[in-house]
Amino acid sequence: MLERLSWKRLVLELILCCIPALILGAVVGYLPWFLLAAVTGLLIWHFWNLLRLSWWLWVDRSMTPPPGRGSWEPLLYGLHQMQMRNKKRRRELGSLIKRFRSGAESLPDAVILTTEEGTIFWCNGLAQQLLGLRWPDDSGQNILNLLRYPEFTQYLKKRDFSRPHNLVLNNGRHLEFRVMPYSDNQWLMVARDVTQMHQLEGARRNFFANVSHELRTPLTVLQGYLEMMQEQTLEGPPREKALSTMREQTHRMEGLVRQLLTLSRIEAAPTLTLNEIIDVPVMLRLVEHEAQTLSQKRHTLIFDVDNTLKVRGSEEELRSAVSNLVYNAVNHTPPGTEITVRWREVTGGAEFSVEDNGPGIAAAHIPRLTERFYRVDKARSRQTGGSGLGLAIVKHAVQHHESRLEICSEPGKGSRFLFVIPERLLARKESE
User: Structural domain boundaries of the chain?
Assistant: First the structure.
């Protein structure tokens, strides 16, 4: 519409410009010269408008075009509309790029955009954090110059990206790289930190290896006695010894499975409501009775309990924690040891502690005591039926009660295990 209108205006302008020349030429004479002057004036006017348009496009660059008349009016208006549309598209494109970068920054993975040659032209913040890249300083750099790992270089050069590539950085982090070609000669690299996954996989392997090792011994003993009883009839003391040993090994396996189930249950419940009111003094009276039975008067057991202190939390988990600490002290200290169990109010909450004057523990073992199946004296632990899971249960149980297990020990001077329930979880028992 505007194009046809512009041509009509051009023809109209030419006619209007020539009519005065025709009239003057008819009256005065010299018609060709008047026509030439009229056309020249029209050309000069168009040339002047062309200069104004050039100035607006290349020098002024303002959003408002210069005013135009005649055939120039629709042309300038059309250019102005085109410029407005381009500006709108640029804003939309800029907004799209901004949203893309914002989304890429929110990804839990490192994202790097490169050419097929490896030249970086964008990366997100996590890529800078995990890989040590700097943006925009590293724009235009080749990623192989920044990540100097021969196996990674070979992975990119082979260009077989059907499988991810696992890379171990110099700082010990494990990264999983995936490369996806897109667009024209461009790559999208995604790096995921799988360090924790590798650690968990290693812990899982160690866990099953330890469990199989712990179960192998009692199963071997049971299998041996069963084969012996199958081959020959046992009577008298040999039969009683065999049955007693088999019962001991069965109890040992039962205890191990029970401890494993307890630990799994505690780990599977990372958060607790902590609304259950626990009568700790009553709980400790039961634990004291069980500890006396376990000790068989070989130890001196002292229970110093504040009967006014209750707490909020999980009774099952807290009982597992306190009973494991008390039973460990009975099982892993020699006869004649004095064991003191305290439940008292301290600054900041209520403290539970188990202290003994036994042989103590070397400092090198203390950081690893809460690991699964870790034992200071493996031979003695197996003799006493220890599973190596007690302190791991204690650690997780007290963590659920917003506390942590503290271990103080010195060889020849005894040991002390304690944790403090925070004050906000106290629920006092009314004095009778």
Answer: 2-94, 107-193, 201-267, 276-425
